[in-house]
């Protein structure tokens, strides 16, 4: 199963102040011609669960405890990361990459876009990456804050999991725009030009869709309960060991 790729001043996770909202988001991610990766994100008060497929990797984010928990049901392993550590890591990496010789990577540290918008469409363009977002209003300001703050922390986690990946840094700027406009990204097309926009330039495309619902179902509750059971029974290993084991599993599968 594929993994979802989910400043300078330090801000603790506890100070983020997530509202105690309950809702769910269904996600569909397609990278080029690869098979889609489908996941469900459950927002249950102040604890959030991202579950890939029916038996894929699970991420639990518990802001009051400043903790990300990653679980692999196939390996029966789990690991814990301090959420505040993921942000410190990204802040330090951003500074290190500002002078990177790769212009795309350097751009990712301070992304700047030209923006066009209509009532339900936001287009962000740059020499390196473009976003086309179909948007709609959030049900209320509390859900908007909870969802977009969660998206920010997911970017920090993804950057920590894959340090060489530049797109999470850029996505933080997209989140800022969505927060400013108070818009939910119902769909998103991302066009990446790693060597810049030029004649016959290589282009990579990512498409995502997201469907928000105010209701968490009984089946969702069962998945949350199962997740807590896995957290009680899975072996806890250091983050580096967890990463190595998951990478080995994926290599054997591919």
Blueprint (SSEs and pairs):
Layout: E1 21-31, E2 37-45, E3 47-52, E4 58-62, E5 67-72, E6 77-82, H1 83-97, H2 103-109, E7 114-117, E8 121-125, E9 129-137, H3 141-161, H4 167-181, E10 183-192, E11 204-213, H5 218-233, E12 235-236, H6 239-253
Parallel strand pairs: 6-12
Antiparallel strand pairs: 1-2, 1-11, 2-3, 3-4, 4-5, 5-6, 7-8, 8-9, 9-10, 10-11
Description:
The protein has 254 residues and is α+β, with helices and mostly antiparallel strands. It has one domain (13-253). The protein is 35% helix and 33% strand. The protein contains 6 helices and 12 strands. It has helices at residues 83-97, 103-109, 141-161, 167-181, 218-233, 239-253; strands at 21-31, 37-45, 47-52, 58-62, 67-72, 77-82, 114-117, 121-125, 129-137, 183-192, 204-213, 235-236. Strands 7-8-9-10-11-1-2-3-4-5-6-12 form a 12-stranded mixed sheet, sandwiched between helices. Helix 1 (83-97) crosses helix 3 and helix 3 runs antiparallel to helix 4 (167-181). The longest helix is centred in the middle third of the chain and has 21 residues, at 141-161. The relative contact order is 0.19.
